[in-house]
Amino acid sequence: MRTGSLAMTVKLGTAAVMLLLAAPFCAQMHKVEKPERVTRSIGVYEWTGDLKKPSASRLIPVSLFINSHFEDGDLYLARPVPFTLETGDEYSIERAGQSLGLFDIEFARDVVTRRSMVDDDPVGAWYGYGKFELPPPKKKSNLKASAKEPRIFGGGDDDQPHFAVRAGAEDNGSSTGDNSKSGTSSSSGSTRTGTTTSPAPDDDPDRPTLRHRDPRPDTKHEKKQKDGGSVIPLGTSLNDDPDRPILHRGTPEEDELPKALTGIPADMQQAVAVSDASGNDPHVFTREWESSVERADTLKAVEVLARPLVAAYLAANKLQPVAAAVARSSSGPSFANTPASAPEGPPRLTPRSAPVNTPPNSKSTATHKRAVAKKAAAVVPLALTDEDIRGYELSYGGLPTFVYTAETPVAEGGPVYLTMVTQQLPSGEMQVALTNVTDATHLNRVPWMRPVDVVDPDGSHRASLLMELRGPSSRQFALYSLVTAKAEQQFVTAVIE
Questions:
Q1: Domain locations in the chain?
Q2: Residue 478, burial from CB neighbour count under 10 angstroms (0-12, 13-18, 19+)
Q3: Which is it for the CA torsion 359, 361, 367, 370, positive or negative?
Q4: Which of 51, 186, 273, 481 is the most exposed place for a label (fewest CB within 10 A)?
């Protein structure tokens, strides 16, 4: 019994030792990849005029995703120029992930407004200036498949195929009689025959080329002249030298930078700017409309959700809307300062004996006016003008997302601004994810949320909503993510005056 127990103990000990020895080798087989470190800068490109050749432009840094969190692009490593606006930084100007061109930072400037200059600690904003260039055209591949198929013949005594030798080729000793030249080897009574491939003829029209040939006859001459491969004698005068530099006054037109954009002009346009050196494949977030009917139905469904929001804001701020027919009319009379009234009916005659309801005091007069305005607002159809709706798909297989903006004219003051973000559920029902309602006289209380675009701020292939929060004399930029049913603010910049 002891011998058996000792043998069993030895076996168990040996197995344990083998397990301990094998453990490190098993651990070494598992390789853990380091998480990808993303450094991604997001900005807003603003310009006037044509995008291809803007008359004035600037780039405003918004966010910098670095070390797995967001930093303010206007403040990060500003020593003194921010890290996001260093000379040589290249931004891709995008529309929903689709690149429109490239913008190279030439220089940056800290702009301090007159209002902030009176403060002891003036607050300015860093802007980047440079030149916009269209993306280079995509080169078409000149490779094409050959229409001819290689002929295969049987060779020797075995069934191994080989390519046919082009007729007229020199005999390089490929006869089966010479084993050393034909690739035939003998080992232990077995014979292995190799294959020989003939080179493609130089004059084969189906032969693929790696570079497009220039059909111009002087192409070779120009290339030799550029790389110094040939010597061209000069004429008797230096003016005959085609490579002689010519001095001009001023800056060449192609090297001129657009003017620095100042203020917020009425014709200013905006687009997203993205700078990322990782070189990831682009992700386009635009959701194309299936048809004009789908767009009309979606717009109608969104308007049903928008009208109660505007009506509630008008009632809470005692604003009187303008009739829809008057708001859409371009040639009719203006009723901006005239309260809207109920539609006229057949004329009525008031008997002389009927008492006139005159409010006894000012308080009842104000109550009476509010009642009349409320009744008129209930009769006047609510106008939604300058409507715009855009569809997006914020992630792969995500819910269709729609960004809707509209305005409602009011009798006094500026219009009421509405911004609403909705998502379409699989059932077809629309759910509201984000709303913003304000008017021109209350921007200091509720800023105007103006959609810039959607953008992937952290390289996760999931887009966020980039909004401009515009106040009466300042503005901010904010990112909103739509991971849940309600949009959450992901990042907001400092105040820009």
A1: 40-135+259-276, 292-328+367-492
A2: buried
A3: positive
A4: 186
Q: Measured between alpha carbons, how far is 424 from 128 in angstroms, rounded to an integer?
A: 38
- Mean pLDDT, consecutive 10-residue stretches, the chain (497 aa), reads 46 53 48 68 97 95 96 92 94 95 95 62 82 80 54 51 49 45 42 44 46 44 50 56 64 72 95 90 93 96 96 94 58 35 37 42 59 53 92 95 96 92 96 97 96 96 97 95 95 92
Q: C-alpha 182: how far from its chain's center? A: 60
172 Cβ partners below 8 Å, 6+ apart? 181
**What are the backbone dihedrals phi and psi of residue 309, each rounded to the nearest 5 degrees, phi first?**
-65, -45
- What is the reported pLDDT for 209? 31
In the CATH hierarchy, which top-level class contains the domain 40-135+259-276? mainly beta
- Distance (Å) of CA 81 to CA 114, 136, 143, 421, 474: 21, 30, 47, 36, 22
Neighbours of 231 (CB within 10 A): 7
Beta strand ranges found along 244-340 (DSSP E): 259-260, 269-276
Name the pTM for this structure.
0.64
